[in-house]
Amino acid sequence: MKRSFGQAVFWAGVYIALSVLPLALVLVGPLPVARGFWIEFAVGLGFVGLAMLGLQFALTARFRPIAAPFGLDTMLHFHRQAGIVAFMFILAHPLLLLVLHPVFLEFLDPRSSIARALALWVALGSLALLVMLTLWRRPLGVAYEWWRATHGILALLVVFIGLVHVLRVGHYISGPWKQAVWVAMSGGAILLLLYSRLVKPLLLARQPYRVAEVRPERGDSWTVALEPDEHDGLDFTAGQFAWVTFGPSPFSLEQHPFSFSSSARRSGRLEFTIKELGDFTATIGKIPPGTRAFVEGPYGAFTLSPDASAAVFVVGGVGITPVMSILRTLADDGDRRPLLLIYAHSRLDAMTFREELQELSTRLDLRIVDVLEDPHAGWDGESGFVEPRLLERQLATFQPLAPEYFVCGPEPMMDVVETHLIGRGVRLRKLNSERFNIA
Ligand SMILES: Cc1cc2nc3c(=O)[nH]c(=O)nc-3n(C[C@H](O)[C@H](O)[C@H](O)COP(=O)(O)OP(=O)(O)OC[C@H]3O[C@@H](n4cnc5c(N)ncnc54)[C@H](O)[C@@H]3O)c2cc1C
User: Considering only CA atoms, which of 318, 342, 325, 335 is closest in space to residue 398?
Assistant: First the structure.
């Protein structure tokens, strides 16, 4: 599956149209008495901010047709940025009104209406908490799973109170059909949340998997093999990933994204190779065979185009997993396109898939360049970090026509490699990146 520019433009257009739909609604029908530019501007910010907040649910609902042209990681990064913009718009709405006309303080004053003031303070507080927890989750030590659970609830609360506020003020929402549009938009957001947190797990429950094998790999990693439990399994394109839950229920808060590491041609059995990096992944090696698992996917656009003439992979550490799936699949296909793998890892003995990569290089037209961060005595290959001069040295020896590039690894490495490749004139549509830290 590759990114389509046309589809991306279409979905971006839909997003913008829905964000400004509340403003367009205002212009339909007779206009109420004007109250001055800045007041209307503040109201407009509130409207657009609330619409953007509702759309946040669509960005995280993991709809494959919407995510495909962008890549799910890009969608989630956009979700994060859009959330901050929506927060600023919504916050600017009361601030501007209060500064321009202190009479609006009445809305937040419990002496005027305790229910209204309480609801608005709860909405503003929830929104601030939502953004704060997202920006500073790690320093605050909040576990990802708990953050994700509260994130949805807080967002829902803000959208609901926002809707009631818009309807109760009713300045631009006088007619019943305008109210119906607002209710439908907010209802849509709530349905999206229910879909991703309730309907999707229910659908997953109908297609369970069983852990068939857990085997150790070099580099503190484990390969977990899953087999479908009385169904046909799923098809994926090499390089994609899925959200995986281990245990009896698909409703678990522990749902993690992992790239398929197995060949896309071996239908049925799926393999994921997982590095021990945190609370959950440190327990992977202890999962007993026979454990139930649920696989939501496939997602992602980190995939090789069928018409690419060649490919260059620049990976670091566990970033090898999606590339391993691509290489295994190409080997199963008997593909002979030229391939270059620049693989950075700490030491040779910590190189995940070391033996199999050697074997694959005999079946494919594949050259492997190891980059050791901590080289042993006598190592005469590349060492240190992947940096522009190293890239230039290696790319100079690999000059087939316009290869596709794949970058996956630690953030600093990805930043350096992407910047260098773009500076080298590599077109964005030829550059595929997979970032493992989307949250
Ligand atoms: C598209 C994609 C593909 C990935 N493929 C692989 C792979 O093939 N092999 C591999 O070892 N790792 C992969 N990862 C990374 C893997 O998902 C995280 O290392 C893992 O979720 C960390 O969980 P933890 O509880 O052990 O670590 P923690 O220390 O609890 O978390 C470390 C960080 O990982 C992220 N994270 C934690 N839990 C989740 C979650 N449920 N969903 C999303 N992010 C989370 C958060 O940013 C968190 O701060 C991939 C990530 C993404 C986004």
Answer: 342
CA atoms within 13 A on the CB side of 309: 6
* ipTM confidence score: 0.91
CA atoms in the 13 A half-sphere facing the CB of 362 = 4
pLDDT in tens, 338-390: 999 999 999 989 999 999 999 999 999 999 999 999 888 889 999 999 999 99
pLDDT at position 197 is 86
Q: Is the CB of 353 under 6 A from ligand 1?
A: no
What single-letter DSSP state applies at residue 253? S
> How is residue 198 written in tokens?
């309730």
Q: Where are the alpha helices (DSSP H) in 137-175?
A: 137-140, 144-169
Using CA atoms, how far apart are residues 4 and 17, in angstroms rounded to an integer? 20
> Tokens 């997993």 sit at which residue?
321
Indicate whether 229 pLDDT > 80.
yes
- Residue 380 CB partners (closer than 8 Å, separation 6+): none
Test site for ligand 1: of 253, 270, 280, 325, most ligand atoms within 8 A of the Cβ: 280
